[in-house]
Design brief:
Radius of gyration: 23 Å
Oligomer: single chain
Distance between the termini: 88 Å
Shape: globular
Order of helices and strands: HHHHHHHHH
Length: 275
Amino acid sequence: MPPALADARPSKPPLATGKAGLAWLGRMLLLIAVPLAILVLASGLAIAIVRVGGDLRLGIDPLTDSASRPRLPLSEVAGRAVAMDAVRQVLMALLVVALAAWAAGGAWRQRLGLTRPVEARAPMRRLWLLLPLWPLIHIVWVTTTAAALQMNFANGVRLSPFLSPLMLGLWFAFVVVLAPIAEELLLRGETFARASAFLGPAATIVATALLFCLAHVSLDPGAKGALARPLTLLPLALTLGWLRWRTGRLWPCILLHGWSNFCLVAYQLGPSLLR
């Protein structure tokens, strides 16, 4: 046999290539569908739980039609909105853990990045250098982006005056603790694991970042600049994905996410609280 023929490798038949392409497309669609389904399911359950619980607490029949329902006090409306956000995050975290346990069995903690990675990764020292610098980086990006999009940012931002102290505390916990934990479990935990199974590190970081931004698109038809918030979150999303890949752990992502939220809230609400 001639050397050229001996060294030649058989090419993949078109049918095999087509099947591989369809399999890859199916994985990509599943990568998008799973976090979206978890978010929708958690949101629906949260609405039902808070509405039924609130109605029973006020002595209202939860099955009463909208036309016959009594008008709720503004404090109740504001409180329910905060409670729905908080309950949604708790349910989302529980659903992610359940899904990871179903997919990986006893190795679900490793799948979500909650244990020390098998392979040695970068030390955490760089994270401590990033934390003091991040508020400046993030606030400069957000303010510049908002100005370019002619959007209001940190001007006249105030919390609802109808929130009770308890609901204010719950809202703060939602922003700084519950949302970072639930969102990181979903995106840099379960979704990152799914993406890493068939994408390279860079593509995994970008894919999870885009899904993170997509999850923050405003669905309110009357909202001005529905895509503004996802754009302002893009650097944070990419940085969180890089941290997840670089360290192999989820807790640095949760820490930076919570710290970023805290600093942004302090920047937005600080002036109004000091008046």
